[in-house]
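**User:** Hello, beginner here. Are you able to go through the protein record under this note? It all follows right here:
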Amino acid sequence: MKGNGSTVETEHSTRTVTDGLGETPDSLGVRIPAAVAEAADCDPLDCPPLQQYVDVDSLERLFESGGPDLEVSFSYDGVQVTVSGGGTVRIEQ
């Protein structure tokens, strides 16, 4: 499945969205809810604000200064989100 410049690979209940951190004008605050919505097959506007689950500004700063080995995981709207410095947003339902 392709959408919005993202590649989605499905394995069991895990979807991986790779879109290259820093290569897209959308912030993590936009891309993460979009990935969750894609995994759940719903509209991103139906997702709760990401800021209720993680400090989005701090997350952005962390990935701006972090290296490719950086990885951060957190729960968001009932799923596990893992963001890596290599540009991968992984959603586990």
